[in-house]
Amino acid sequence: MMEQKSFLDRVLKIVKDETAPNVPLIEFRHPKELEEILKDDISISDPVSDQQLEESVRKVLHYSVKTNKPTFKNQLYGGTDPYGLAGTWIAEAFNTSQYTYEVAPVFTLIENKMLNHILKLFGFPDGDGIFSPGGSISMLYAIVAARFKAFPEVKSKGIRNLPEMVMYSSESCHYSIMKAAHWLGLGTESVRLIKSNQCGQMVIEELETVLKNDINSNKVPIMVNGTAGTTVLGAIDNLDKIADICAEYGVWMHVDACWGGSLMLSQKFRTKLKGIERANSISWNPHKMAGAPLQCSLFLLKERGLLHEANSAAAQYLFQQDKFYDVRYDTGDKSIQCGRKIDAFKLWMIWKARGDKGLNQMTDYVMELAEFCLETVALRPGFRLVSAPLQCPNVCFWYIPSFMRHQTEDEKWWGLMHKITPKIKEILMTSSRMMVAYSPHKEHKNFFRLAFTFHPKLKDKDIIEMLQAIEDCGEMITIENL
Q: Which of 33, 348, 397, 447 sits at a 20 to 30 Å CA gap from 305?
């Protein structure tokens, strides 16, 4: 008699079935309704057979968002690279931690290889780095490194006897810097949010003015955070000019390149990040544009050794210095974490399969696709761009339904537009046609953001179909149903 197959043997078929081309993007249900539908399936009190388990898993996946679909444009990530997904499954199956060479010998070598390759790509050939759980944690790493560099005694004595420290970032930056300031005891008021221009880029003149005023008030600037790809508009700050100011005043420069860092993969588009090589630290999330499975993020530093010096705790039960092998390969003490997933392996799988050339081509293609979208939106009746030219592959726009056109665009009109955009999204989602992000930004009322990623690979016709879906749903709206 053949040995009964384990549940694990069924998983690939389940995933293929539940993400097949004919499966809807989403079958949306409101939270309480979904709780009722799945109440028996998500209950964990009593054991079930493998067949019952499969039925429940399929039901869970049925109501889950299929992020592999071309019409999933809700976040700054999308479908996963199939090589990366394979790497994730292999890494999970081997169930080890990245902290010491003895439990992850080859995975340690792979992480070192990936870090060295990426450090050279970003212009830090003698630098250091670590894979982190996400951009928010990378921001914590950056502030800890900057603060330690300015005041090494902070590691042992804390901040109670230190002068008031301040940091600077664009008002369009990611919110993680505010959370990090709170977590690290600096307080959210220590973050100076510098105005951004209409394209979403930091106003450099204001940065210098605010920084000088703080110095004159006996405050200590410890970090300027430049952004290479803001969340909404995809804006890239003038990194060279930020670097000039940081050099003049002796301030740590960090670049949040979690989104836009993928442009460094392209020989053509990496020039958009000119000046990034002058930073002290950089964060990049390959799980965003490049399609590495969540989560896959890197924190990079120019100064080798600082990461270990700032974060090490020298736990004797784990990082013994009298081991029989070269303990320099025990990299875990650089990290704020103890146990750490082997995220480098899934990125290695992608890079090994595609190489520098393949990733270059994918970056160029996604930027060309975004440019096509921007040009199409600019010419299509009823659509209006929020900003141009293209910086990252973000295209932001309003759709103005027919009944709203040819009117005075006063405060009342824009108030209606603010309601129309989320209403269009609601119709798109409940009809399973599309999931698309929307946001206000500064003085702008709610608008749509299409952000393009490596996976799934789209064609021009896919973009036309998405815009048509937005138009169709927009034309369903009347004053009465707002």
A: 348
